[in-house]
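batch_manifest entry 22 of 60
target: Retron-type reverse transcriptase
source organism: Crocosphaera watsonii WH 8502
requested by: lab member K.T.
priority: normal
notes from requester: please return tokens only, no post-processing; we will run our own comparison against the previous entry in this batch. if the run fails, retry once and flag.
--- input ---
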Amino acid sequence: MTQDNQGKKTAGVDGKKALRPNQRLKLVKELAFKGYKAKALRRVWLPKPGRDEKRGLGIPTIKDRVMQALVKSALEPYWEAQFEGTSYGFRPGRSAHDAIGRIFSTINQCPKYVLDADIAKCFDKINHDYLLSKVECPHNIKRIIKQWLECGVMDKGIFEETDSGTPQGGVISPLLANIALHGMIKDLEKHFPNSKKREGGSVNRRFKPRFIRYADDFVILHEDYDVILQCKKLIAQWLEKVGLELKPEKTSIRHTLKSIKQDGKIVDPGFDFLGFNIRSYPVGKHHSGNTGGKHPRIIGFKTIIKPSKKKILAHHEAIKEVIKANKKAPQAALIARLNPIIRGWCNYYRTVASKETFSSEAHILWNMLRAWTVSRKKKKTTLNKALRKYFSNGKHGLWTFQTKDCVLYHHAETEIRRHQLVKPEASPYDGNWTYWSIHTRCIYWDTK
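--- output ---
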């Protein structure tokens, strides 16, 4: 926590950002449940991307972070064996790509209605009594968890009590949020039979709605619009006991293949989830897949997942800001700042149909860098000569933005690699080292 934690440069109320080696050893000796008392959190406000809103983080002290990591390491293996298979957020061995892959496998052969929902202020509103009643652990650990929930926050020198929620910024907060939301999927599925006859006489053997959750964002998929409406009502009722509610402006019903009327407006097919646009497109029989099995039928559409327009525009803005901030910086410095942004964005979207997007982004970036070059050239220098100063023949062709020591990463050089979907029941703590070594391409050693 003092070295590897991503938020290690943010201090708690004690003002400490880091510890020296001797201080870390002293801290280890002080770790004990008996006599432990959590300190208040320090409020830090971060802007939400693309919005005027701000997200309030509660930053614990280093000692509290270490204690939270200790308790988390004790609770997480048990809860990983309990959590629902289609819950993917803030869980080891799972990612947003698993959630997207599960959605694809659900809709790629049958178009469905989608309840795309978001829980309002999930981390801030969770009922403490409800959460603590679900946490199964020794009394002394539960007492400490209660302290973390109720320790309060210091915001610009003013103390505020925390009567609800699991403050964002704590090491254990994501796990506690998942514990609070655990059971939502199973309780919803209990209201629906496994199979049901369709109007035409055929039997839908997968009648239960498909529920995919990533932290406080989730989607529910089903062929029947009325079932989706029923799910929305049931979820709202379930969330009440947790102290939560759906966010109306971020909750909508859509269809993966066709436009539908929603609140008096025509809504386009498809939906955005976790930065991806998911939609089925009607195609002719020569481009359509089939259902497979003994009696295959042509499905008449193709499901394509690609980066959402919102995230593409956000990526443009991020690159534009870096280029603008480095108008007078050396070319190598600009490349060093752009490469992590481009590479990270491409790696996130490399698992879906992003080839055209990557090519388009590469062209847009070239134009941005051309403008950057023009802004630096002298009046008497020709444009071609100025461009040749920064662009030369390299691995991306004649117009490679590079220096002798570094090359700008090219969107289009990113190779598309399909993500291997994690098994619903799998957990890194289940002892199946063979599965996880293959799935994650690394080896988990048995330490017994």
